Amino acid sequence: MNAKNRNRMGIGALVLSAAAVVSIAQYEGYKDRAYVPVPGDKVTIGHGTTQYPDGSPVRMGDKVTPERAMVLLKHDASRFEQAVKRCAPVPMHQHEYDAFVSLTYNIGDGAFCGSTAARLLKAGDYAGACKQILRWNKFKGVPLRGLTLRREKEYQTCIGAAP
């Protein structure tokens, strides 16, 4: 293993940390009834779930308990972990992995897999890939304060500066 990858773990050995699960839950918030986060977005429930484990979409009128919302979050996070592993199959520090899974949870696997961040990770440019997180602060081209704040926290996590 070369010097720049020292102390990074093979991607197959990484799992989302408990701290990252809590962060995602905080970023997403909790809603017990289905809603549309911003006009034009997908119907969402719980902690950002848009699709149930059986593949069916969340629909307006759906309800969820806090416990079930956490189960859905873990299911969703697992899906997005697999996307990060598939699209950026490189060694990472835990904090880098947590940040990229959190990003992917929010933007989707297709967006992450086609992103400059994934390309830079595969090229070994970890600092550049982390910096790309900051670019994902818009919805339909419009910067959103909540996304800007989330991306700054994810970036700080990615570079290992988050508490």
The helix fraction, in percent, is 40-55%
Helix-strand sequence: HEEHHHHHEEH
Radius of gyration: 16 Å
Largest sheet: 2 strands, antiparallel
Share of residues in strands:
5-15%
Describe this structure in words.
The protein contains seven helices and four strands, in the order H-E-E-H-H-H-H-H-E-E-H. The chain has helices at residues 18-28, 66-87, 94-107, 109-113, 116-122, 126-132, 145-158, and strands at residues 31-35, 44-46, 138-139, 142-143. The protein has a two-stranded antiparallel ribbon. A two-stranded antiparallel ribbon has the order 3-4. A hairpin with an 8-residue loop joins strand 1 (31-35) and strand 2 (44-46). The longest helix has 22 residues, at 66-87. The chain starts with 17 loop residues before the first helix and ends in a 5-residue tail after the last helix.
Relevant terms:
mainly alpha; two-stranded antiparallel sheet; 163 residues; globular; single chain
Layout of SSEs?
Elements: H1 18-28, E1 31-35, E2 44-46, H2 66-87, H3 94-107, H4 109-113, H5 116-122, H6 126-132, E3 138-139, E4 142-143, H7 145-158
Antiparallel strand pairs: 1-2, 3-4
Helix pairs in contact: 1-3, 2-3, 3-7, 5-6
Task: Characterize this entry briefly.
With 163 residues, this protein is mainly α. It is 49% helix and 7% strand.
